[in-house]
Amino acid sequence: MPPIQPPMQPTPAYRTEQQPAEERRGNPVLETIQQLGQTTTPSGESNIFCMTIIGQIEGHIVLPPQNKTTKYEHLIPQLVAAEQSSKVEGVLIILNTVGGDVEAGLAIAEMIATLSKPSVTLVLGGGHSIGVPIAVSSNHSIIAETATMTIHPIRMNGLVIGVPQTFEYLDKMQERVVRFVTEHSKVTEEKFKELMFKTGELTRDIGTTVIGKDAVKHGLIDAVGGIGDALNKLNTLIDEYRQRRSEGGATH
Fold this sequence. Notes:
The structure is a single chain. By secondary structure, this protein is of the alpha/beta class. Helix content is 41%, strand content 19%. The chain has helices at 21-25, 28-36, 72-84, 102-113, 131-136, 164-183, 189-196, 213-217, 227-251; strands at residues 48-58, 69-71, 90-100, 119-127, 140-143, 148-151, 208-211, 223-224. The strands form 2 sheets. A 6-stranded parallel sheet has the order 2-1-3-4-5-8, with helices on both faces. Strands 6-7 form a two-stranded antiparallel ribbon. Helix 3 (72-84) runs parallel beside helix 4 (102-113).
């Protein structure tokens, strides 16, 4: 009769209980960057909250997983947190977006426009479609020299009912965008609609693509520049914000 072999002991490679708890949990900051593409409300000594809007702005419908998206339900709580935080004195919004959901884009733009703290938007790469209202929603807007902005009419995806009410709804949605852009920038309504309905420039659509200096010339954006210019302008606005607060506190 062969001798009975003792049971094999697990090798150290399989002893996961010996691993530190920190290694199993992972780095929370790294996980936030992977999930949201950005960190949370700034910690440490920074008094500026930087928010990035990249890819396609996702609204009420979840986009396919291969699309790089910015979810508006992630941005709105961060803007609320930045507004409430006593450490945050300014907000920097960096844009490189192809556009997306109209209502979600307008919601983000309204949140930025109604912040009590100074805000600066920087368009890098592109600020197309519904990214245009977001780009002009801050106190000061800057565009990179090679960045582009595509202005075109609102479009609908999926089933469209061919009745007059559908076109009236589209017209009202479009007027919301036109009104917001003209109220928060120096472009006139006539000029913006001219750019929006221009034919012959876009291969598969009507509209206009404006690049860097052209966006400033039309009055859409305040200045051409980069990240250094955006931070310098935001720090200047923060100094003015502090002065107004101190003067207001002295009068009460």
